[in-house]
Write a structure and sequence with these properties.
7-stranded mixed β-sheet; about 850 residues; mainly beta
């Protein structure tokens, strides 16, 4: 079994280990703390006011992205946490923004990597102004203690404003003090890039017992949200890391100060703890928050475990608000075993053929949005799990959602988006290298009717090692749903054959940048008539690195590329949203026995579908009780969307067996092959060989040690009973003819054979030798051939002999040897 163990901090740094046999999410908290933030003094006007070179190519080669280089950062600590939202749009202002850390190699005199800058397009992504800022502009920042990472941002446009330069970028990023994650680096600035409009607040959160804030989003007008973990971890590898709850962070625009007032609400929640190489860590990851367009219906989601039920798996856990975040209800645990279709989609075996647990678990990343009906949509990967790990048995990408009006027991349901074969890849050359999983990310239409899902997967079939299912050169896949019309698109590979971003697959060579790395999408899409355009940013790690040298470094500067042609047209939503087959349950046992010429009673089966309710299965292959045989009765249930599932019942029609057997007549040799020929499909046999020995095998090979006539008897048993004993006489002679000393001097090859056979003799060659071949009935199939004295190599040909087992007799005037030969012409 070739699986992996990931020791992963909350910032998703990871390790590979073949010592474990699944992927798992652990905490090592080994963070690189090389940067020291400084504050830019004086004014800075962005120099880049023209679009950077764009990548364009012909779609005749396949899917090609229209990508253009925008800003850059000093390392990957902008984008490696897939739960952070760095890109946002305002459709009415034609504005797209992307926030990132500073590239201190590009602008060394104006800041360092720990500060935040942003890129902006004021014409829907066509041209860009890049590296504006730093927006974290405050001389009071302690350059030795405040280290900003993982910035997030949204656009705030005050009511009535139509000037894009007067709108604001509201940002919130996580900072650390060289020992722990400590809180939020928050602020705002006008989209015009005016330095006086920039500000920053350094806010400690929960006594500095926090993790990385994620899921920044907008709620009601002028209200902004983040979510974080109440977390006592430090940057010390191997230390305990306990999650004791979630922190919901709410920001409200203050018209008087033209700033955002933030408050933090702690919801206490304990999680199941596990041992991580001697440290205690909590089963809690991927904190997300999202609201519907009104800002009244909101959800928080976590992947984790809060129930000590010995499942040792991750399930989605939710909190819900219906009053704009004033009150939150939860935790609501979604048991994936009870979501229709999830268990049935699990692969029963891991990639080496060992059985999988068939106990569903999520992987360790997710994204969340809320639709027009106020229902959550959680995008995540699901597979078989154990001990808080996911087994390499094949995975499925699911949208886990809620429907208050669904059939009883089906309120939590899953939309099956795709079956995938890979989970994790490594993309930098450090030890440990920087890893990335399937990177589930979501965008939606502004009215929340349509939801756009994205994930990464590598075509594992192109790996030289069939057990190597690393997601190390991924393509970006997408699929969208319409929750109002209940339709969906086909799954689309967005990057295949793109010269920059393509993953390596059976249909495409890997692109220059090694695949679609660290993608980020806007939480809402732009709308062009009836077409939706999803703003997308991809990352080029170590952009100064020669790609022909292999993987780069996570500490090296990273470039960001904007993609403006991820479009979903109205006509793309042509498939039924229901992709989950009904669940069929057999009434009665799964195996039935019926006496020959008896009566078979059909117990039937029950089928249920969360969309269509109870379905009557179609029955095929009814048994014929007048003919003894083993029948498979099929029950096929099909829902209104055309999804089908099949189960079977085995029906055995027969009677008490009539025992019978055949055997070879050993005219030469002393091994007898017995062949069962009993009727009515017995499953047990009892042989008595007449010499005190016996066997329970169906077709035993018996070796006799004396010459005699043996009375061999057989009884056979099936589900109807045991047969009367049948006995036959077997005559054995030839025991003692074969000389063991002569046998040791003879080698015969090849064996098995389909043609010529060679015999080498290494003993006394002063005598002539005779070779002959017999079948198991004692009949000669190759006539005797005599070889003169002094011969050490003898050959004969069985190319015209049927497949089977034969006896080769080699003798001289003093002794005889018998060798067994298998003929197989394939």
């Amino acid at each position: 079994m070739r699986n992996y163990l990931l020791f992963m901090s909350l910032l998703t740094a990871g390790l590979f280990s073949n010592a474990q046999q699944q992927y798992s999410h652990k905490d090592n908290k080994a963070l690189r703390l090389v940067e020291r933030p400084v504050v830019m003094q004086g004014n800075h006007t962005p120099a880049n006011t023209t679009p950077r070179p764009q990548h364009r190519d012909s779609r005749a080669l396949g899917t090609v992205l229209n990508s253009q280089r925008i800003g850059s950062a000093g390392n990957l600590l902008t984008v490696i946490d897939g739960g952070c939202n760095q890109i946002d749009v305002n459709d009415s202002l034609n504005a797209v923004v992307f926030i990132h850390r500073n590239d201190n190699t590009l602008i060394p005199a104006t800041g360092n990597v720990a500060q935040y800058r942003y890129d902006i397009s004021k014409n829907r992504g066509t041209t860009w102004l890049s590296d504006i800022g730093p927006i974290t502009n405050d001389p009071s920042i302690d350059n030795d203690l405040i280290n900003g990472r993982f910035p997030q941002a949204v656009i705030y446009n005050r009511p009535g404003n139509t000037n894009v330069d007067s709108a604001y970028l509201v940002y919130s990023g996580t900072w650390h003090d060289n020992n722990t994650w400590s809180g939020q680096m928050r602020g705002r600035g006008k989209l015009s890039g005016q330095i006086p409009s920039f500000n920053v607040h350094i806010d400690p959160i929960n006594n500095k017992e926090v993790a990385i804030a994620t899921g920044m989003c907008k709620g009601a007008p002028g209200v902004f949200w983040n979510v974080n973990a109440a977390y006592n971890g430090t940057f010390t590898a191997g230390a305990d890391a306990i999650t004791s709850g979630l922190i919901i962070q709410k920001g409200v625009w203050n018209n008087n100060t033209k700033d955002v007032d933030w408050t933090d609400q702690l919801i206490t929640q304990s999680f199941v703890n596990q041992d991580n190489s001697g440290a205690t860590v909590s089963a809690a990851t991927s904190f997300q928050i999202a609201f519907d367009p009104t800002g009244q219906y909101g959800w928080v989601s976590i992947l984790g475990d809060i129930t000590a039920d010995n499942d040792s798996v991750y399930n989605p856990i939710f909190w819900k608000t219906v009053d704009g975040g004033t009150n939150w209800t939860g935790p609501i645990v979604v048991d994936l075993k009870l979501v229709q279709g999830v268990v049935g989609a699990l692969n029963p075996t891991i990639i080496t053929g060992d059985p999988a647990s068939l106990n569903p678990t999520t992987a360790f990343e997710s994204d969340l949005t809320v639709d027009v009906n106020g229902n959550p949509h959680l995008l995540t990967t699901v597979g078989s799990g154990s001990e808080y790990s996911i087994q390499t048995a094949g995975y499925t990408v699911w949208d886990i959602t809620y429907d208050a009006g669904a059939i009883a027991g089906c309120n939590w349901k899953g939309i099956r988006l795709a079956d995938i074969g890979t989970l994790r890849g490594t993309f930098t050359n450090e030890n440990p290298g920087q890893t990335m999983d399937n990177r589930p990310i979501i965008s939606r239409s502004e009215d929340a009717h349509k939801i756009f899902f994205f994930w990464l997967e590598t075509d594992y079939t192109v790996h030289a090692d069939p057990l190597d299912r690393a997601n190390d050169s991924p393509d970006l896949f997408a699929r969208a749903i319409d929750v109002v019309d209940e339709t969906m698109t086909a799954t689309v590979n967005l990057t295949t054959q793109d010269t920059l971003w393509s993953g390596y697959s059976a249909n495409s060579e890997v692109g220059v940048f090694g695949g679609a790395l660290f993608p980020v999408v806007s939480q809402t899409a732009l709308k062009n008539g009836s077409t939706y355009n999803v703003p997308l940013v991809l990352t080029q790690p170590d952009y100064n690195h020669d790609p022909t040298l292999g993987l780069g470094s996570s500490e090296a500067p990273a470039a960001f590329w904007y993609v403006d042609n991820i479009n979903f047209a109205a006509g793309d939503f042509s498939q039924n949203l229901d992709q989950v087959a009904p669940t069929i349950t057999l009434n009665g046992p799964d195996t039935v026995t019926v006496l020959l010429n008896g009566t078979y009673t059909e117990d039937g089966a029950t089928a249920f579908d969360c969309t269509d309710g109870v379905i009557t299965p179609v029955i095929q292959n009814a048994p014929n009780t007048a003919v003894g045989d083993i029948y498979e009765v099929l029950y096929i249930a099909t829902d209104a969307a055309g999804n089908s599932d099949t189960v079977k019942r085995v029906v055995i029609v027969g009677a008490i067996p009539v025992a019978d057997f055949s055997f070879n007549t050993p005219q030469v040799g002393y091994k007898v092959q017995f062949l069962d020929q009993s009727s009515y499909n017995p499953y047990a046999w009892v042989w008595s060989f007449g010499d005190g020995g016996g066997s329970l095998n169906q077709n035993p090979l018996k070796t006799y040690t004396t010459n005699a006539v043996f009375n061999v008897c057989l009884t056979a048993t099936n589900s109807f009973g045991t047969s009367p004993q049948v006995c036959k006489d077997v005559t054995v002679f030839g025991v003692g003819i074969s000389d063991p000393e002569l046998e040791q001097q003879i080698s015969m090859f090849p064996n098995p054979t389909n043609g010529k056979v060679s015999i080498n003799f290494q003993g006394d060659v002063t005598r002539q030798m005779t070779v002959s071949v017999y079948n198991m009935l004692g009949e000669v199939v190759v006539n005797p051939t005599t070889y003169k004295a002094g011969t050490t190599n003898m050959t004969f040909d069985v190319s015209n002999v049927a497949n089977g087992v034969y006896l080769v007799k080699i003798q001289n005037d003093k002794s005889t040897a018998i060798k067994q030969l298998t003929v197989n012409h394939k």
